[in-house]
Write a structure and sequence with these properties.
The chain is an alpha/beta fold and about 700 residues long. Helix content is about 40%, strand content about 15%. It has 24 helices and 22 strands. The strands form five sheets. Strands 11-10-12-13-15-14-20 form a seven-stranded mixed β-sheet, with helices on both faces. It is elongated. The termini are far apart.
């Protein structure tokens, strides 16, 4: 079965006998590895198993059409046969199953069948369903951005490279599948989407997942999308269909989708039992299409191979699998302490002196606002590094280039990116769809290829559709791939209240949700100068960074500064004592810094109490040494923050101070924060909810009097 919906390139060249026998060998090898892993799991020698049984034919065909080390691959957990066809060895696969230290997929950090191989361009796969789709689009977009750049001399791209991305029929129910299809088609990106339709997402059948039970029919109207529907249990038909689809991508005519009908003769995983939901007749019908059995019979029936040749291949593979299993089982496990490796870059340390030029600013011009100094930093950095891309919602001056000379330009809701498109071109500064996961997912793929995305999430309140990509993908890629891959993306996002009329959905904070994620740096400047220096560090470091910009602080006059020059940097994890004191310590950040200073001034003038105010600036990492030094001096601590009081960021600071500085404390650690509610629209509600100067002053008095 092979149907087409677009004009076709030339047919595939006929496969020679050696090609067909090698395809069978790889298919059988994939199945026998599944079987050996199942056996090892039942012997309690491995800890998890999920198979690619029934998918082997179309995957071996894909591996033959595509080019390892040339094309790029975003597989999913059924893609064992593809990885074997690309060059991954049985031993490497079983090293993953036994969680060996030498596992090239993840160093024993991920489940088996979570493929990743740097040398073969197989990008580390995670467990969430469908998250790789947007990253594959970003990976393909990297070809477009490199191709259009005149300033990058050495471009790590090929003129006709293709990005492969696969998923099951269940994956097409994810919103990110549709976002990926939209962007790939809109930009005519060379992405091959292979949907391996085995008719089940664990126990949920395809007609429950998909309207009309056919995803290829649903996507038929995407422009420039080549579509093939094929019997994925037939390796020859699959090879022909994939050859046509890949040719469409290589010719830069747009993306392609191959809808392959396969089977799943084994349960979803060894944690599942398909007998509970698949009746015997359905399972029997599936078994008749088993590609291992049908292809071996076909080889003999058509005179391509003798029965003895087929048996010889099987015997050779069985021996190969046993040798690989013995080698894997004898391989050492990771040393426990290596779990701490590669959470962050081992080569670039943004907390180091290399990133500290704070004491030598090269000031020029009059003092100006945070918005202006952020804009200046972006201009300086984009001029310095042609790999930097800037995109998000409304960040460009205008999406239609022909209007650039006719309008002033948007440049972001708050004008932080104004003028950047005019200066650096639409290939480097451009608008994205109104889809936050799309922004982050694409940025991950772009960064994996060596570009430096600086993306904007317009409001913190709407960051949540992107949280899946931020938490499970952006922050984990380096660690889960054992440092084989990284994605140093800078995510700029406005946050916070103290703006009349913001209400629930334009006043959120919630930094603690992100500071709790290993692998993600989180910074939050309170002044224009700090914003400039911290953003420059964020761009030049090699880790993903969430850069929080408080809307209320963008244009305040009290935090202005002159331009400190193009090499001004503030290292992460370096707090700033913004007011010296001896009687108590206030630990704070963001918009609460200025309020704490006003309260401290009032307290000193009225009561003679001198409070020391520390602006953290960097929330993760945090400057514990600065806090400890101040506590040792004052013996009293107030933690002030804009987030809700309960379960907030300040709770961790209070807990650690109590744990590590208890012997210096003369009073309990006190907190001032927002009420445990959302922010209201009415000014009286907002003022009551958010911490105000009088709240801070009263808390300082109570703490000093204890």
């Amino acid at each position: 079965m092979s149907t087409r919906t677009r004009p076709q390139p030339k047919a595939a060249k006929p496969l020679a006998k050696a090609d067909l026998l090698d395809m069978f060998r790889l298919m059988y090898l994939s199945r026998r590895l599944d079987d050996r892993e199942i056996q090892l799991k039942r012997q309690n020698k491995i800890f998890f198993q999920i198979s690619g049984a029934g998918h082997e034919a179309v995957l071996v065909a894909a591996g033959r059409v595509l080019r390892p080390t040339y094309d790029w691959f975003y597989p999913y957990y059924r893609d064992r046969a593809l990885c074997l066809a690309l060059g991954m060895t049985p031993t490497e696969m079983l090293l993953s199953a036994v969680a060996a230290a030498d596992d090239p997929n993840s160093g024993g950090r991920q489940m088996p069948s979570h493929w990743g191989h740097k040398a073969l361009h197989i990008v580390s796969q995670s467990s969430p369903t469908g998250t790789q789709l947007l990253q594959a689009v970003g990976c393909a977009e990297a070809w477009l951005r490199f191709d259009r750049s005149d300033r990058i001399a050495e471009k790590p791209i090929r003129g006709d490279e293709v990005v492969y991305c696969s998923g099951g029929d269940g994956t097409t129910s994810e919103g990110e599948f549709w976002e990926a299809m939209n962007t790939a088609s809109n930009l005519k990106l060379p992405v091959l989407f292979l949907i391996e339709d085995n008719k089940y997402a664990i126990s949920v059948p395809v007609e429950v997942q998909t309207a009309g039970a056919s995803v290829s029919k649903l996507v038929a109207n995407f422009p420039d999308l080549f579509i093939e529907e094929v019997d994925g249990c037939d390796p020859i038909a699959s090879f022909e269909a994939l050859t046509r689809a890949v040719a469409h991508c290589r010719q830069r005519r747009g993306p392609a989708l191959v809808h392959a009908h396969v089977i799943r003769p084994y349960s979803h995983s060894l944690s599942d039992d398909e007998v509970l939901y698949k009746p015997p007749k359905e399972r029997e019908e599936e078994s008749k299409r088993d590609p291992i059995a049908t292809f071996s019979k076909r080889l003999v029936a058509e005179g391509i191979a003798t029965a003895a040749e087929v048996e010889g291949i099987k015997q050779q593979v069985d021996e190969e699998v046993e040798v690989a299993a013995d080698m894997a089982l004898a391989s050492p496990q990771p040393q426990p302490e290596t779990a701490l490796h590669y959470v962050y870059s081992p080569d670039v340390d943004p907390t180091s002196e290399q990133f500290d030029t704070e004491d030598d600013p090269q000031f020029a011009g009059d003092p100006t606002t945070m918005v202006d100094l952020l804009n200046v930093c972006l201009k300086d950095e984009m001029a310095r590094d042609p790999r930097i891309l800037l995109f998000g919602e409304d960040v460009a001056d205008v999406s239609r280039d022909q209007y650039l000379g006719q309008v002033k330009g948007k440049g972001g809701v708050f004008k932080v990116t104004w003028g950047l498109q005019r200066q650096f071109g639409s290939g480097r500064v451009y608008n994205s769809p109104l889809a936050e996961a799309n922004i982050i997912g694409r940025a991950i793929g772009l960064a994996t290829r060596g570009l430096k995305p600086v993306v904007e999430i317009q409001f913190f309140d709407y960051i949540w559709p992107a949280y899946h990509q931020l938490r499970n993908e952006l922050a984990t890629l380096r660690w889960r791939s054992h440092n084989a891959f990284s994605c140093p993306v800078v995510v700029r996002v406005t946050y916070g209240g103290y703006l009349k009329g913001g209400a629930i959905y334009h006043s959120q904070t919630g930094a603690v949700v992100f500071t709790a994620i290993p692998g993600l740096r989180v910074v939050c400047p309170a002044t224009a100068l700090d914003a400039n220096g911290l953003l420059r560090t964020a761009i030049r470091c090699d880790d993903p960074v969430l850069f929080l910009e408080h809307k209320h602080l963008y244009r305040q006059t009290y935090n202005k500064a002159p331009n400190p020059g193009p090499n001004f940097m503030i290292p992460f994890g370096k707090a700033k004592v913004v007011k010296e004191g001896r009687d108590l310590t206030v630990v704070t950040y963001g918009a609460v810094v200025h309020r704490a200073l006003l309260a401290a001034k009032e307290l000193e003038e009225r009561d003679g109490v001198r409070a020391e105010v520390i602006d953290l600036r960097s929330l993760s990492p945090i400057d514990w040494d600065a806090i400890a030094r101040s506590v040792q001096k004052t013996s009293r601590v107030l933690v002030a923050y804009e987030d809700a009081r309960s379960w907030g960021y300040g709770a961790e600071i209070a807990a650690r101070v109590a744990d590590e500085a208890f012997s210096w404390l003369d009073a309990p650690v006190k907190r001032v924060a927002s009420t445990d509610t959302f922010v209201g629209y009415a000014p009286t509600l907002e003022d009551f909810i958010l911490p105000q100067v009088e709240d801070l002053a009263q808390a300082m008095r109570e703490l000093h009097a204890f």
